[in-house]
Amino acid sequence: MVFRENITSSEEFCDYLYDLFKITNNDIRNIIGSFHSEMAKGLSGQKSSLKMLPSFTRRPSGTEKGKFLALDLGGTNLRILSVDLNGKRRARILAVSRFFLTKDIRHSTGKHFFDFIADCIKEFLENNNFDLSKKYELGFTFSFPVEQTDISTGKLIKWTKGYTAKGVEGKDVIMLLNEALKRKGFKYIRVTALVNDAVGTLVAKSYYESNCDMGVILGTGTNACYPEKLSRIEKFRGPGIGSEMIINMEWGNFNKLKLTSYDKELDKDSPNPGSQYLEKMVSGMYLGEVTRKLICELISRKFIFKDTLQSKIFSKKGSLQTHHIAHIVVDNSKNLEDIEKFLTEAGITNVTIKDKVILKKLCKIVSQRSAKIAAAAISAVITWIDPELHKEHTVGIDGSLYEKFPGYDDVMKGVFSELFRKKASKINLELTKDGSGKGAAIIASIVSTHN
Ligand code: BGC
Predict the structure, then answer these.
(1) Does the domain at residues 57-207+434-446 carry the CATH identifier 3.30.420.40?
(2) Whole-angstrom Cα distance, residue 436 to residue 195?
(3) How far is the CA of 11 from the centre of ligand 1 (A)?
(4) Which residues of the chain have a pLDDT value below 70?
(5) Active-site residue flag, 243
(6) Is the alpha carbon torsion for 389, 394, 399, 402 positive or negative?
(7) Which of 59, 99, 173, 411 would you label with 150, given CA atoms 20 to 30 Å apart?
(8) What is the tens place of the pLDDT at every residue in 177-202?
(9) Distance between CA 177 and CA 167 in Å, rounded?
(10) What is the CB < 6 Å shell around ligand 1?
(11) Torsion region of 56: left, alpha or beta (phi above 0 gives left; psi -120 to 50 gives alpha)
């Protein structure tokens, strides 16, 4: 073990960081154990970093049918979709529009925020020639922690992922959306379902494949859900629809991980200090920033980018994004030309091969920790459902980190092999694109058949 105060070279510093960010098999077992105890507490209504929120929906039967609208909000874009369900396990997107949510909108007031959404819905319907004299049912995927009291009512507990729009926390988001629709004079939209993106992903995947029992988001933010037996949800006393209910875990808030000083600093500077610790160590929104902090320390110790002008670029918060890291880790060329290209584009020239090698090492250290924690968290949920891995489990996963980060999936599978040996093949990770849009439409259809 290298001690921080004794470090004299970049090599030693990288070794130090490697140890600091390492997730050992023992760490993984501890994470799984703590996940299980936090899950139990969350389900019984005790204080827990895992909120284990009832979603008021179950998995679909596959026979859900009809055309529904879906509104998908939670990243940097807002998407509006029209989805057709054929009743035979096939969901087709008929039309989709994306609207960029500027910083101004994300940080504005609730009124402004929901008025913008209502305007986007109107634009979508007009552009796609919807008959505005008819009524449409809409499933709203709102990818933030929400305390639901039924399928179409739920209060935002706390904004995450850098959103701060005022006057929304503690309020029923469907009511806020309905009020905005009313202000704009729309009478043709009925918002029937409030859905989390992880829940939407599980529902969308299980519409196609009945043995899917977990939904995961690894993107800007991170989260997971799974179907829980009603009898195990001690805090839920209401009537269920069937014998299971999907639980939105809000695992991004899990707080039993060992934090480094870099994680603590990142948390302190974030708009939501003290919460979403796992998210800040795993998700796409933060990987660039954690890595940037490591680079800054190497620069300040004069181990890399010795030209001060160059180092200035990294001193700006947000200057390194997860997609940059993805480009850096994938460069296997002899002279790391792609890394050089990226640095040149960022205005950094005259870099040495050593600088590039170190940069790549740092990106790997941070991204591998993310993939290992994500795999540990998935293992925790699967072993909660099926401790001995008797069955096959399909995990529907959506999100740009999982989809686009080179080698992320392999690191996760490596963890499963270490933990479960031969039985690791029973866990199937499957990319589930558009789950949050299609899932909302499927849930709107479940609601429509029950009403
Ligand atoms: C939110 C979750 C969401 C996840 C992925 C987190 O920040 O709290 O509700 O599912 O991001 O979008």
Answers:
(1) yes
(2) 8
(3) 37
(4) 1-2, 239-241, 307-311, 451
(5) no
(6) positive
(7) 99
(8) 999 999 998 888 999 999 999 999 99
(9) 13
(10) 74, 143-145, 160-161, 196-198, 217, 221-223, 250, 252, 279
(11) left
